[in-house]
Amino acid sequence: MNKATPPLSEHAILVINCGSSSVKFSLIRPHTGQSILTGLAECLLTPQASIKINYIDKDEKHITALNAPYDHQTALTLLVETLIAHKLVSEIIAVGHRVVHGGEQHAKPVIIDEKVKKTIKQLAQLAPLHNPANLIGINACQHAFANLPQIAVFDTAFHQSMPKKAYLYGIPYSLYQEHAIRRYGFHGTSHYFVAKQAANLLKKPLNQCDLISAHLGNGCSVTVIKNGESVDTSLGMTPLEGVMMGTRSGDIDAGIVIHLVEQLGYTIEQVDTLLNKQSGLLGLSELSNDCRTLETAMFDENNPDSAQATLALSVFCYRIAKSIASFSASLTSLDALIFTGGIGENSAWVRKEITKHLGLLNINISEEKNNEMCFGTSGNIAADNARACYVIATNEEWVIAEQSAKLLANTQGE
Ligand code: ADP
């Protein structure tokens, strides 16, 4: 901690979300949720590397300046220079990192030490694309902000409340005991954030709320929340299971993998690429993984891709509706269905298409309210007398900032 600690109202947490070729960052006041500075460095380690920083407190400023093969460390160095230039460094009390996989070891945020780093590294075998990148961010921030506590907030943590019947697969138990093969779930910070917002809208404490939350972005997951806790979720041991996504297949018959390898001569690497990068909306539409592109094609009768785009979106919505309906098996009551993520927050068509399959759950939406709800607005789109159906803009960064501040306060006995 810095010697001259700023007053509580000026405390800020630097939130870092480090991917293999990108770093997203936000400077957030945890007590109000206000973002002071946000930014994205992308295409790192390529000639197209770029960084954009929005300083929000005053007139918006954009810096888009990198055209060399910058890496994570140099991107963070530029961030530090920007923080110094705006005299913001002294306000930062900690750095909060999004870490994708915390396994069974981490059900809560934790201050990062060598032992925690070792666990994150070990868990890379369960999240090979994500945990190593998260570690790059942690190492770079330890270097850049040597005096500040670094805190890990895990995507899997919210789902550690799942009972065994929800997280075990129907395969030999020894694979769970010896190799930790089980459902972990992801998008936990997002599901937690929207559940809290839903509790506010319902005017009930979160621990009395029963909810189903659909996070629909490039990655998609459905989570069922009982008394404020995750009791089941669609993503599994990896982020490939569950509903169909932008480029990921979601659930398929596991026998297809065997068929691809044994009958069609695929290698395991090719199956991996097929299921993770060439399937989902992209694979079915043969056009795009982007919902906006597909909707544009679908609504244009003269577009030769229109029928295929419609088919892909219909399968996408039906599979999500089935997942939502199946999760009603975990509940004895349901306060609300929640839509969030880029698609869930913005696509009125997708919300309508999903909910049209959910009449048995008394989920019916008002066309007018549904069409009005997009671009960051939150609220209830349910028709009169139907079950509440909320559209809520997610804010994972805020959760990371809030949980980091809370952990710090607890550690310091405040
Ligand atoms: P990520 O999982 O990468 O965080 P996002 O939550 O940003 O992804 O969601 C990206 C998806 O949201 C894309 O499929 C995009 O097309 C979709 N999306 C964003 N805005 C709209 C919109 N106005 N209408 C329909 N889909 C949208």
Please give the number of β-strands: 13
Strand order of the largest sheet: 4-3-2-1-5-7-6
Please report the number of helical segments.
15
For this structure, the quaternary state is single chain
* Structural class estimated from helices and strands: alpha/beta
As a percent range, the share of helical residues equals 25-40%
Q: Quick one: biggest sheet?
A: 7 strands, mixed
Radius of gyration: 22 Å
The CATH class of the largest domain is Alpha Beta
Report the order of strands and helices: EEEEHEEHHEHHHEEEHHHHHEHHHEEH
Q: How confident is the prediction overall: mean pLDDT?
A: 92
Q: Which architecture of the largest domain per CATH? A: 2-Layer Sandwich
- Counted up, domains total 2
Distance between the termini: 14 Å
Which residues sit in consecutive blocks of at least 5 with pLDDT less than 50?
none
Q: Given the C-alpha coordinates, what overall shape results?
A: globular
Distinct small-molecule ligands in the complex: adenosine-5'-diphosphate
User: Approximately how much beta-strand content do the residues carry?
Assistant: 15-25%
CATH topology term of the largest domain? Nucleotidyltransferase, domain 5
Question: What can you tell me about this protein's structure?
Answer:
The chain has 414 residues and is of the alpha/beta class. It has two domains: 8-154, ATPase, nucleotide binding domain (Nucleotidyltransferase, domain 5, 2-Layer Sandwich); 204-396, ATPase, nucleotide binding domain (Nucleotidyltransferase, domain 5, 2-Layer Sandwich). It contains 15 helices and 13 strands. α1 packs across α3 and α6 (188-202) crosses α15 (396-411). It is globular. The mean pLDDT is 92. It binds adenosine-5'-diphosphate. Residues 217-219, 246, 290-292, 295, 341-343, 346-347, 374 line the site of adenosine-5'-diphosphate.
